[in-house]
Amino acid sequence: MTLSELRGVRRAQEEAQTVERHGFHPTVADYVRVAIILFIVTAIEVAIYYIPSLHGILVELLLALSSIKFVLVVLWYMHLRFDSKLFSALFAMGLAMTIALFVATLATLGAGLL
Amino acid sequence: MHQTARLAESTLETSTGLDNRKLAMWLFLASEAFFFGSLIATYLLYRGQSQTGPQPSDVFDIPFTSVSSFVLLMSSTTMALSVAAANRGDVRALRTWLLTTALLGMSFLAGQAFEFTDFYHRGLTLSSNLFGSTFYILTGFHGAHVSVGVLILLSLWVMAMRGQVGRHNAINVELSGLYWHFVDIVWILIFTLVYLIQP
Amino acid sequence: MAQATVPKPLGLLETLRQVRRDAATYQGIWSWIATVDHKRIGMMYLVTSLIFFLAGGIYALLIRLQLARPEADIVDPQTFNEFFTMHGTTMIFLVVMPLSSAFFNLVVPLMIGARDVAFPRLNAFSYWVFLLGGLFLYSSHILGGPPDGGWFGYAPLTVRQPGHGIDFWALGLQILGISSLASGFNFLVTILNMRAPGMSLFRLPVFVWMTMVTSFLIIFAMPVLAVALFQLSFSRLFGAHFFNPAAGGTPLLWQHLFWLFGHPEVYILILPAMGIVSEVLPTFARKPLFGYPFVVFSGIAIAFMSFGVWVHHMYTTGLGPVANSAFGITTILIAVPTGVKIFNWIGTLWGGNISLRTPLLFAVGFISMFVIGGLTGVMHSMVPSDYQQQDTYFVVAHFHQVLFGGAIFALFAGIYYWLPKFTGRLFNEKLGQLHFWLMLLGFNLTFQPMMVAGLMGMPRRVYTYPSGFGLEIWNLLATIGAFVIALSILVFIINAIYSLVMRRGEVAGADPWDGRTLEWSIPSPPPPYNFAEIPHVRARDPYWHEKYVEDQEGRPVPVVAGGANGEEHHEAEGHGGHGIHMPSPSYFPLIAALGFPIIGYGFIYADYALVAAGVVVLLLGIYGWALEPASE
User: By the 8 A CB rule, do C438 and C487 touch?
Assistant: First the structure.
């Protein structure tokens, strides 16, 4: 075997151990827990929408809450928490770049983001 | 070490140890971020700038859309359960959860269709005003993506019913799952930025 | 698919399977239509692009004929607008991009020691979609007239243009975008995942790095163009208001979206060419690339930074000093990694054992022409300077300097360098040199006068200009130059036909240039499976290190027999039991691709049954593709 093949085998073994340590496949219970949190957060979002006294910080609150949902789905349902960091890097890159570019674009047109 | 160069299914034979198709799917999703980013940015740019025509507060039915949003979120849960079932080789659960996810997706689409029809009757069209143009193109393309997802899920379900999906090709369910969850997180953004945060 | 024994349906299925089996023999037309072999797909890209190059060139000659004299009326303004629109759109989307794809296809799998790309059918799909997209765009000529809104399609003009021309443009580019996107994903996965053992990222040839970086640009930039084009189409077809000031919109949205795509696009056009130069120079200087890590990191930096400069196309739209200054700074900065590459290329040639063959001539031509073009780019980056230059022929000169003097020259270097590998024949060297010198002369005669005319204030995109402003001589020279370019292309065509098609060129052999990278280690043309045995890579420039070691003075000394790959002993058939399975040919990529023009025509003629039919064809193609095994 060449050195790189040996490395490949070792990497696979490490990954398998990581699997066991971190729970590579979340259990059904984990998925249901995430579902409950998503449900609750959405309910809070809708509730906030109807509470006039919170309208000053409506935008910030809603953004924070939807970010929580976003992150939960990506990390748990899409498995990014347990998968190769390369996937996370690619997705983060796409996300970060598009946000940066469009914030800049809106700024040049004098439009605030929200 | 000699190689029988079978180019099809590949897992640890690849240079990164990652499956070709999974890598391709994540690249695709990163690319789609730019697609929806552009549509969302356009919506945000023009929010509150419509000179005439219906405004969001004139047409939105937040309770209705909230239910739709719940439905789509739950479909993500059932999708995750489908993937788990496929990985376990549990064909019965796989069939159930795939079908459920597809049905939830179709419910969401039905909700969208109902909503769009209602908005249309209130005078909101692609050409009525900026709100119409930017709203329909964003939610329309999102809906198109959901439709493609439903098609994929139903196809998988049919294959699962025929015993053609199992642990050996669970990757296909996983890939469909990634696509489906992505479509869901785009909706999370749309629901907040378009429906809940109004001009 | 079901194993039926009923004769009637089986007849069709069995015929289709037989067609597929025939296609695997590499004989006959079906073998091309159903091919998934990256080498054949690469050749198809190459030939198709060169044909479009002639079309784009003819438009250029017609433009130059009209502009040779002031107030000429060889063509009317409408036709002139169509000419420069089709010229630009063709050259960018149907020539330079697919020529780069040709080389990605032909060369990248070989350079990384792979047998094909990650998704061979997707690869074929990319080619067919490209061909059909190009034909769709050109069909506008007989269906109401070609587009006339420029290759950049600025709103609100393009929203309001009557007729179908703009729709052909918008829908055609959507189709071409799909081709590029598919290619981008394919090559990224290929390069990341299918490298031979030992081929770490920092042993990759620079051309492979540039392919990877370009593919990232493609997958991030093309979706933004897609959105812009959808917004344009929706505005035209359904009355949407994206760019309509009367409704509260702004035409600047188009410009932002277009240039958010458009600036990375020009780096998509140039980075592969730079990659080619980075391969040719070391081979013909018989020295490794100078500063490999710097060249690689510069490529990455250029790609990343290319997303941060797009507003420099909009300095004169009134965005204000803050936006202009910010982007002026980022634009100036992007010149830095570009300059780093230039110095490293010069360093590669310095002290080398130079062999002035045609590929090297074009590569050196690239460096000199690109430096001029790049410097004019730096001039544009300065905001007040650009206020004078914007929309003048100075800009036209700049981008032709970098895209023709740059990209096209480098792509020709690649053609002379690599085609012998895939055809087994060398180009005639004398004709090659004649091509180069004529093209260099013609190119400079065409575009240096445009620099002058531009600085004198001649606007772009005008079908004529008044006499008495001193513009006549520059335009006349440019027209003469254009015909000299045409002559040089004729020389190339004669050379190609004589040497390659008629096979009168010298036999190339596996390694005509004493090359450094893995593609030179296999026969010319390569067998379908590329490598009898997947190589083990131990160094950068792996083939060079197989052939040579260094003596005490650092001079290469050939390795004694036994270190060579001994390919003649390893025919696949003789491997008994360890057969090489190549992916089966498939006609589903073509079937799927056919769906797109049908959908396009449906939208053009508002015939939604046709759109539905196109969707059905697309789905049939995709389902067939998904359900057939990738290799039998």
Answer: yes
Residues 6 or more apart from B125 whose CB is under 8 A from it?
B132, B136
Determine the residue among A6, A91, A105 to mutate to test chain C binding: the one whose Cβ has the most chain C Cβ atoms within 10 Å: A105
CATH class of C40-567: mainly alpha
Q: Can you tell me the distance from the alpha carbon of C146 to that of C164, in angstroms, rounded to the nearest whole number?
A: 8
Would the CB atoms of B16 and C192 count as touching at under 8 Å? yes
Cβ–Cβ gap B31/C239 under 8 Å: no
User: Domain range holding B110?
Assistant: 72-199
B123: closest CA of chain A, how far (Å): 25
pLDDT tens string B45-95: 999 999 999 999 999 999 999 999 999 999 999 999 999 999 999 999 999
| B22, B173 contact by CB (below 8 A) | no
Question: pLDDT of C432-447, one tens digit each?
Answer: 999 999 999 999 999 9
What gap in Å lies between CA C511 and CA C469, rounded to an integer? 56
**Taking 60 as the threshold, does the pLDDT of residue A14 lie above it?**
no
Number of domains in chain B: 1
∠ CA C256-C246-A103, rounded to 5°: 30
CA–CA distance, A15 with A88 (Å, rounded to integer)? 16
Evaluate whether residue B112 is within a structural domain: yes
Place of tokens 């990343």: C304
Among C440, C478, C438, smallest CA distance to C460 is for C478
> E strand or H helix at C99, and its extent?
helix C97-111
**For residue A78, which residues of chain B lie inside 8 Å, CB to CB?**
177-178, 181-182
Amino acid code (one letter) for C262:
G
Decide if B127 is inside a domain: yes
Q: Are residues A76 and A90 in the same domain?
A: no
All residues at 6 or more sequence positions from C143 whose CB lies less than 8 Å from its CB, including other chains: C164, C168, C604
